[in-house]
Amino acid sequence: MTISITTYDWVPDTAVGYVRDLRIRWACEEAGLPYDVETTSVREKTPQHFARQPFGQVPILRDDALSLFESGAILLYLGERSEVLMPLDTAARADTQQWLIAALNTLEPVVMDMALVRFFDHDARTEELALPRLHVRLKQLAPLLKARDFIAAGRFTIADIMLADVLRIVDRMGELASYPALADYMNRMTARPAFRRAHTAQVHHFAQAV
Amino acid sequence: MTISITTYDWVPDTAVGYVRDLRIRWACEEAGLPYDVETTSVREKTPQHFARQPFGQVPILRDDALSLFESGAILLYLGERSEVLMPLDTAARADTQQWLIAALNTLEPVVMDMALVRFFDHDARTEELALPRLHVRLKQLAPLLKARDFIAAGRFTIADIMLADVLRIVDRMGELASYPALADYMNRMTARPAFRRAHTAQVHHFAQAV
Question: Is the overall model pTM greater than 0.90, yes or no?
Fold first, then answer.
């Protein structure tokens, strides 16, 4: 049975290309896993949506009888389906999971705090608190990505999908420019044909939305 | 070889019982995995620390040649070592990973934002922005934990360790009281003998610190 990815039926123009179904599309494209797309209303979230995703978020994966949410958990699941996404070797696999989680739990929260204040809250003091917390993490990450092509396991993995997609948000806020190693890494990852196909598909999906 | 958990050599009194090595101690206690504790300086973080943990955080796990950071990744690793912590069945395992990640990526960021403002930043507008974002998530979570004993897979898993430990922070801020189902769940999890042993060991560790 084909994998199905549930995403929103519509998002504002500013979110197009950044909805987290992109991470799942990208993984499927890398692994050659065909997928369908289902939609759920973003403006009037349905009981059916909350039954599958208690926080009303997307993406949600459907694979046969399995329904799974959280982009990080879906990437782990797909990583277990395809060695293209996550190595089988215990140490390399642990390294992959470590960096997937670091991207989700150490980087993404400080990135999203800045994105919230920059795009929604517009509160000067909140930004003043959030901005240095973001840059502490970017400064710590930069030397690592100067010294390696991929973040984990010496090869492309789901950790790169997660980390590069988090760095895209930083780039969009104009905060990545002072870290050439991070910008180069993000550009290398997003130049991959699988990313391009996934990105094009998401843009196309929302261009057709009403 | 025995597992080793690296934590700080000292933390302020207010952090005792809440340092994230607790999650790893708890998992080891549940699974009957013996462990040693190593320390690293919190006041003068060393190059050796940053070499093992680029963000200067704890905990770090050592298992033979493997050195692993991020409490979520360490729990996944231990979950693969012991079925007591994570089921082998594909669907139950995916459910466990889904809730581990939801606790880390959907709940912990809004919890930590509130903890930062409450314990460090003391900025009224930032709190006014952060507080409703926390309560949206708690409201969505509460009905689920009213209807089940454990968050994932119908049994105790690493997802309970992560979720219960995140809810402890909410409880400490006095924001859990209006969610009896969440408070009951947290109390059930932290009444487990393995949690009690882990908590006592952490408190004892920092009581001896200088």
Answer: yes
